[in-house]
Amino acid sequence: MEIRHLFFDLDHTLWDFEKNSEICIRQIYEQHLAIFPENIGFDAFFQKFSTINSTMWNQLDLSLITHEYLRIFRFQKVLYALDIEIDESFSLELNQMLLDLLPHQHHLMDDAFDTLEVLVQRGYKMHIISNGYQDIQIRKMKSGGIYHFFDQIITNDIAGARKPEKAIFDFALQMANAILENSIMIGDNLIADIEGARNAGLRAIYFNPENDVNDTENISELKYLLEILKGHIIL
Fold it and tell me: Tens digit of pLDDT for each residue in 2-47?
């Protein structure tokens, strides 16, 4: 059956979380220089944030921690790893600052805008499936100039489930008036996006910019979607 519906992850797939978060983390660092010893520069802080944040999101995808736990302890764990002790209240304050800053950033992954524009012109219906919160993800998409490309924006707070749970994919298909046979999921997370989608019976394409493999199940650049869907790479 012809593919008509494309379901995208947002962070790290279309919206450049690393670049945007670096801008925000730098602002947090510069506004709280007093808590950092002279030997802890921004690069060390951001590298530690990226590593621990990624680990905690993977734990969240595996249901090992809750979103509330991540929200409270994310910055406490980052700073503790740098031998800086803060309490939970200050950790929450830093986390809220990050959440306030992030949605205003606009950087997209390479080729994201141009690829989405061509896909819309070809008549595909496009949707987002994200583990983020609806209001924050919508603001990110508007800041990045891609909100208008999408019909349905499915987030964990709207669906009452999160990737890789089957329920969020079922909910997304229902909201989009799509079926498994005419839909594809595209995302950067092997557990949440790819395994989750396939366990729900949905075809999936893994987006991994660090891998040069490009076929019907893997892409290193978003623009390769145009070749796959046009039939240059046969599904």
Answer: 899 999 999 999 999 999 999 999 999 999 999 999 999 999 999 9
pLDDT of residue 48: 97
**Cα–Cα distance measured from residue 1 to residue 196, given in angstroms and rounded to the nearest whole number:** 22
Can you give the residue range of the structural domain that contains 58?
Answer: 17-104
235 occurs within a structural domain: no
Phi and psi of 220, rounded to 5°?
-100, -15
State the virtual CA torsion across 203, 207, 208, 212 in degrees, nearest 10.
Answer: 80
Q: Which residues of the chain have pLDDT under 70?
A: 231-235
Assigned token pair, 130: 């994200």
Other C-beta atoms closer than 10 Å to the C-beta of 50 total: 16
Residues 182 and 76 in one domain: no
CATH number assigned to the domain comprising residue 191: 3.40.50.1000
